[in-house]
Specification:
Helix content is 13%, strand content 33%. It contains 2 helices and 12 strands; from the N terminus they run βαβββαββββββββ. It has a 6-stranded antiparallel sheet, with helices on one face. Fe (ii) ion binds next to loops.
Length: 202
């Protein structure tokens, strides 16, 4: 536990399981190519590239942030979430329903992610569960108010992070990725998989 409700599980996914996740991701990216999201209003591009798996995917463009059932460029449904990812959710989420969305963030060549809250979901009773693959990243998180005190933790390949309870709406982001710290991805870089429950269960 590193902050009220933020749980860090270093090395939760072993190397063999990380390798099979990467294979599954390569398949997913063939069906749902990585796209460069744009900031709402300004239209500035994110430095990460993204795609999604599951019945819903998170997208951002000039019209805002939202979940949608189809890829913004191909208009086809997102590929299914691999079973191995659902199993990780079941082990750590302490939440009885499945996530509908798994956002795939791909960090390469200096990509980072500014401090933000994950708040486009209806059900904040569900945690956000993320899996890190590839190069180690410096993850920064704070409280639920912008501008508050923050702390950092390094996330290495195979680490799982759970933001639930009081930390569900905490500000968080990636300051930087340390290139050359993992041999998992042949081209280097980092992949983060973020599972989220979007709709309130009936
Ligand atoms: C995110 O908050 O969307 C990504 C966090 C991460 O890359 O670890
Ligand atoms: Fe986030």
């Amino acid at each position: 536990m590193i902050y009220d409700g933020v749980k860090h599980f270093p090395g939760f996914v072993n190397r063999e399981a990380q390798e099979s996740l990467v294979l599954a991701l390569r398949e997913a990216v063939l069906a749902a190519p990585l796209f460069i999201p744009l900031m709402p209003r300004t239209g500035r591009p994110f430095s990460v590239r993204m795609t999604n798996m599951g019945s819903l995917g998170w997208v951002s463009d000039r019209n805002g942030y939202r979940y949608q059932a189809a890829h913004p460029d191909t208009s086809t449904p997102w590929p299914a979430m691999p079973q191995a990812i659902l199993e990780i959710w079941q082990k750590v989420a302490s939440y009885p329903h499945r996530p509908e969305a798994c956002l795939v963030n791909f960090y390469q060549g200096g990509a980072k992610m500014g401090l933000h809250q994950d708040k486009d979901e209806e059900d904040f009773a569900a945690p956000v569960v993320s899996i890190s693959l590839g190069d180690t990243a410096l993850f920064r998180f704070g409280g639920t108010e912008r501008g508050g005190k923050t702390s950092t933790v390094k996330l290495a390949s195979g680490d799982v992070l759970v933001m639930g309870g009081n930390s569900r709406l905490c500000f968080h982001g990636i300051d930087r990725v340390y290139s050359g710290t993992s041999t998992l991805l042949k081209e280097g870089g980092r992949i983060n998989l973020t599972m989220r429950r979007v709709a309130k269960p009936n």
